[in-house]
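Title: Comparing notes on inverse folding

I've been comparing how different people in this forum approach sequence design from structure. To keep things fair, I'm posting one structure and asking everyone to reply with a full sequence. Here's the target:
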């Protein structure tokens, strides 16, 4: 079931706050082993997706349906916030958050291209040469 941009902004904002607070509450657990530290970076990449979704939906609500998130400042700012939040858990989580976020951003871009592409292609121009005899 699809929701409007405003509702999606509210939902992703609430989930962002819940995930951030959960990461801060269990920071000792994330630092207890290497696997938990990598999982903290993965949760940081989920935080990146939620922040990017919230910002994108807020801008679409304010500026119209045709507004698109750009690499700078929306994506870069969301990535920076998520990496800082992961760094508050563990230093290695920052690196894994960056890597997982880049992978997630690649797949988000692919899905966006499939869903929102216009689907119209320009046919190749065929040239016919006229030869004089």
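Reply #1:
Here's my take.
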């Amino acid at each position: 079931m699809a929701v409007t941009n405003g509702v999606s902004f509210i939902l992703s904002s609430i989930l962002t706050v819940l995930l951030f607070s959960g990461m801060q509450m269990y920071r000792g657990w994330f630092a207890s082993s290497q696997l938990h530290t990598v999982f903290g970076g993965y949760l940081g990449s989920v935080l990146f997706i939620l922040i990017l979704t919230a910002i994108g939906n807020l801008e679409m609500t304010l500026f119209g349906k045709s507004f698109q998130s750009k690499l700078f400042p929306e994506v870069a700012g969301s990535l920076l916030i998520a990496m800082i939040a992961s760094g508050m858990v563990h230093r290695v989580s920052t690196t894994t958050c960056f890597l997982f976020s880049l992978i997630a951003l690649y797949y988000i871009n692919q899905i966006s291209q499939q869903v929102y592409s216009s689907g119209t292609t320009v046919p190749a121009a065929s040239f016919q040469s006229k030869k004089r005899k």
